[in-house]
# Entry
Amino acid sequence: MATSKKTPRTRTAKSAEDLKADLAKARAALAALEQRAYAGELDEHVKNSAIVKEFTAIREKVKGVSDVAILTSIGKAVGIKRVEVTQKAPAVRGPRKNTAKK
# Structure
């Protein structure tokens, strides 16, 4: 049985810039993981608090104000710096292709 010898690859040590980039990616992944881990618990606390009732009361008192404006002002009142609340446009589906054969 003949075996072919592979030439060994040389290893290169990562530079400081490469390590910093890897660290930034790992921190971002950790933040996303923490957000997903506590999402259920946070949703439960918000539902059981008076926040939902207060939000609907504000919406009814101030006619014509958007939900984004309410959330932004709540963030300012609480003291969250550099808060940015945005609302995505609804996803638009493409037109259906006529698949009926004649």
Q: What stands out?
A: The chain is about 55% helix and 0% strand. The helical segments are 16-48, 51-61, 67-78.
